[in-house]
Write a structure and sequence with these properties.
This protein has 176 residues and is α/β, with parallel strands linked by helices. The protein has helices spanning 15-28, 58-64, 69-72, 93-98, 106-110, 131-134, 148-164, and strands spanning 2-6, 33-37, 50-52, 74-76, 81-84, 120-124. Strands 1-6-2-5-4-3 form a six-stranded mixed sheet. It is globular and about 60 Å long. Bound molecules: adenosine-5'-diphosphate and magnesium ion (MG). Residues 11-17, 43, 127 line the site of adenosine-5'-diphosphate.
Length: 176
Amino acid sequence: MITVPVMSTKGGVGKSTTAANLGAFCADAGKRVLLIDLDAQPTLSSYYRLEYEAPGGIYEFVGANETRPESIISKTSIHNLDIIISNDSKGQLDTLLLNAADGRLRLVNLLPTLQPHYDLILIDTKGSRCIALEIPAERRSLIVPFTLAVTALIRRLCRLVASLTVFSPEGTLFLF
Ligand SMILES: Nc1ncnc2c1ncn2[C@@H]1O[C@H](COP(=O)(O)OP(=O)(O)O)[C@@H](O)[C@H]1O
Ligand SMILES: [Mg+2]
């Protein structure tokens, strides 16, 4: 079982798209996948048609410690692909967690109740700094999508660094 948050401090870089497609790809390959939508703007929750829509979602799971699967886990029309939808439309979850003694560890503490049922749990997050972003950062694996502009920047930077080493006989280059 592996739990992987998809995160970036930037919006619109493809976090939800990556979670949705990677999740469906792995489900198609026979893995039991759970998507968790931590973004108050429920892009991931709207990605796939739901065959079973649970009465609750992320608000009941993280906000109220509800762990009964039939209450919080919806089933998409893709076999093996389940989702805890985002239903925090008023964005109250952050405040609720900030005021809870166990707020920062709430999701980490709740995940073990679901982990035995899945091979992969993908957590979609929102593109800004918030407590909900800190929770999945506890995990060891991380997916950080970035845009082609950033890829191009990194490639150009690598070329620049490579060309500058010509002027660095010791072979050591410090970048500030
Ligand atoms: N690999 C990609 N190539 C082209 N467009 C993409 C790709 N990934 C995402 N998009 C598009 O970029 C937009 C933002 O994607 P989204 O997954 O909602 O970003 P985020 O969750 O980071 O805010 C959407 O319109 C989506 O269709
Ligand atoms: Mg998103």
